Amino acid sequence: MRNLPVIAALTVLTALVGCAPADRAAGTNTSGLYPAQSDGTRINPAGTAATRALDRAAGTDVSGAYPSQRDGTPGNPPGTAVSRTYDRAAGTNTSGTRGY
Which residues pair with 77 in a beta bridge? Predict the structure, then answer.
């Protein structure tokens, strides 16, 4: 029972060291040993490569890397293009852009 804290510490250390090669290969920081590769840094912007690609293609900010493309900004008003078109045609405000 006295060795339980030592065993727990060794288990955590083993898990962290085991993640280090994966972090090096993937450019992540799961182990905590590569803080420069943390999500949201200059080297590794917010989100994943897949979500950033989606954002670039769709003009969204799912990844968090493109705040200028967020819903409600001048470049991307609230709602979707479909809901804004519906609002114009039906005289409604489902998108939230019409202000009434």
Answer: none
